[in-house]
Design brief:
4-stranded antiparallel β-sheet, 3-stranded antiparallel β-sheet, globular, alpha+beta, rbstp2171, about 230 residues, single chain
Length: about 230
């Protein structure tokens, strides 16, 4: 006689980047084991793969998790985690007023959202004729490019995120030019133009949540901003 099958509830969320409605479920014991093992190993690449595997499984393999923008992936993961282990997590925060007292603060994961900067734009007008259109970096790119030196890191990130280039009425898709041609193009930018490209990354949407709490020793109120899903691991 077969054992009974436990039904898993499903939920819906809107993908921050596209507002597409997707269905997801909580992670199960088999997926929790994947995450726990990765966190115990304290290896960033393994943790990235674990998060991506969990998001892929829990969204019923309907998304291309390898190309998802990092903030989309983090947002989905936090929602999945909220439905799996509880909406409220407790984090230990350092009080900025004395920089030595830690305070345990409860955070409702359902209230954590992706923040969009009003100044952010994917199309960058370099000149009256030339426009650069960018795509968002995925988690793989952010992890691997972080191992490079600062200059290589910046150029590597930009080079991987250029989606297309407009020159008047001509559109150059990413497949239309080589990496060497793109490097030459980027190196030809003046300082102001390059800063405008960097601003794309500085103002990218990101998981962000403001937390207010009182230092029990000084009685002073503090406010800090948590960014990125690692901030909510407790």
């Amino acid at each position: 006689m077969s054992l009974p099958v436990i039904n898993t509830p499903t939920y819906e969320l809107k993908l921050p980047s596209t507002k597409e409605l997707i269905t997801y479920r909580p992670f199960l014991v088999k997926e929790e084991k994947i995450l726990l093992i990765a966190m115990e190993e304290e290896n960033e690449a393994n943790t990235v793969n674990a998060v991506r595997t969990i998001v892929n499984n829990c969204t019923f393999e309907k998304l291309d998790v390898h190309s998802l923008a990092m903030f989309d992936l983090e947002y989905i993961f936090l929602r999945v985690r909220a439905k799996s282990v509880g909406e409220v997590v407790t984090v230990n925060l350092l009080s900025p007023d004395d920089n030595k007292t830690y305070v345990k603060v409860d955070i409702d994961l359902e209230s954590v959202e992706v923040k969009f900067d009003k100044k952010h734009k994917k199309k960058i007008n370099l000149t009256d004729e030339i426009i650069l259109e960018m795509s968002y970096p995925n988690l793989d790119l952010l992890v691997t490019s972080g191992d490079l030196g600062q200059a290589d890191h910046i150029f590597g990130m930009i080079g991987q995120c250029v989606e297309r280039i407009y020159s008047g009425e001509t559109i150059y898709e990413r497949a239309d030019f080589t990496q060497k041609e793109l490097d030459t193009f980027l190196e030809s930018l003046n300082t102001k133009q390059f800063e405008e490209v960097q601003e794309f990354f500085n103002t990218m949407p990101k998981i962000s949540h403001d937390v207010e709490f009182t230092n029990p020793k000084t009685k002073k109120k503090n406010k800090i901003t948590l960014e990125g899903m690692q901030s909510f691991f407790g």
